Amino acid sequence: MDKRKQIGEYFILESESLGKGAYGKVYKGFHENDLSTPLAIKQINLQMIPESYLEDFKLMVEKEINSLHILEHQNILKLFGVKMTKNNLYLVTELCPDGDFGKLAGKIPIKTFLTYFKQIIKGLIFAKENNVIHRDIKPENILLKDKLVKIADFGFSKFVDDPNIRHKMTTKIGTPLYMAPEVFADDEYSSKCDVWSCGVMLYQMIFGYPPWNGYNPQDLFKSIKNDPLKFPEKKDVDEKLKDLIRKMLVFDQDERLDLEGVLQHEIMKRADSKILDEEFKKKEKIESNNEETKSDISAKKHKSKDDNVNHMKSDINVKKHKSKDVNVDPPKYFIYLENKTEFFNDLANKVIEFKNLLGFTKDSIRQLVILFQKIAVISANKIMKMISMKKKEISEIKVISMEYLEAGDIKSQKPKYEAFLQTQQASFHQTIEDYEKYVKKFPSNFKENVINEEALEMTQGFLREYKRVFDEVIAKISEKLEEFEEIDGENVEFFKTLFMLIKVKKGAKLDEEFEFNEEIDAFEEFRKDINEKLKGKKAKEKTMKKLKSIIG
Q1: Which of 34, 56, 100, 136 is an active site residue?
Q2: Active site includes 521?
Q3: Which of 123, 352, 437, 477 is deepest in the core (most CB within 10 A)?
Q4: Are 31 and 38 a contacting pair, CB within 8 Å?
Q5: Tens of pLDDT along 148-173?
């Protein structure tokens, strides 16, 4: 049975999470008078937001609300309502069940994506006609609902008198990977900054990775300024499409196409909604033939042993000669490191969410958050380090099989994980900026071994700082546990956070606590184990005793 929470006239189904962000989650929900139309309800936990950032955050949310209220367009996410409680802010929007473009780079047929891209441009032109510049266009902010795209997240948007002319805007707004050069340079800019972002996204969605990368925002924009735009070899990419991308990614904004120019480009005339109709028919046909497909697979399983061996040899041989534009699945160890990154980012968010209940000092909270985000950066960097190694060196580590190394091109993973590392570094950099006035007072060893953005390894210095912070934290957890007689429904999530903190208390033994296994996601297994420990009254009582004994 769904666990429901009512906020005003809306029901939130807390058992049906649709996603999560830095400061909250998105749930499926309904209006009390219409239980047949599902909605998306974004819950923003105001307690998770750093005090130094709270006013700016409120202004950002206000911008998003105002923008969505005035922008009624089929390609812009519809806002139905806003609710506020003591601790949370709720934004109620239409539900887009097909997700976003975030994980689809290089995986959508070009003609199909161009049809979606045309919708994005039309939505942005409508926003421009209403004097709104989005300023944070990226794949994750483009949602899908049936055959329509929905532009979301207008938190960084700007109302201007005339979007066609340059305006002086003093803040670097947006996601660095998609940010126009003039925005990064604190120059005056117009709606053409959205054209640049769309150009980067178009390139990424076609080729599977962005046109430029860097280890930090400064390095990225140095690359954009100095390195000419290049296109990898891909047989089905039309020269006219490359021409459109070139004109959208002109460094000088005065020479860059505007949104209307993008829509009028010759290649955009091929973006026909009939293509989406055909794609959806194919999808329905695949689903209807699902049983037949299963039968085929079952039949293949009963092939003779010799046939299977020959097939495997042939398959490996084909993989060796794959063209560079074909996507190869990453090795499972890379996925393990991705999961590790997600786990520690999630833990950083939980520490902020439960900062009052935890009872840690404000400096301990900030240092924990920085430590966890730095582990995320280190994990992402470890992937990049392995990609740069020779096959023999990788095989000696014994986490990626020689069979994979021989069959697949591990170097083909570089663009994806360069972007992944950059995202982690940008998030870490933003946290350091948010905590700027507090960082100055942190111990010099912490600044040198943890905050230092050039330190990308888990050194002994890092581990010493990790232990110092956790010595203080574990002592506080011990005190906090004495305040609780039992685990009840209201504090279950808090106790999950305690379990996570206790699990990672020994920085030097993290790889032992979450041992890599090709068949099992160690981090997901740990979460399942916590959930089991917190089910039922007897389990909770047993868990409370165990927690106290571990800490004691």
Answers
A1: 136
A2: no
A3: 123
A4: no
A5: 999 998 877 787 777 777 765 655 67
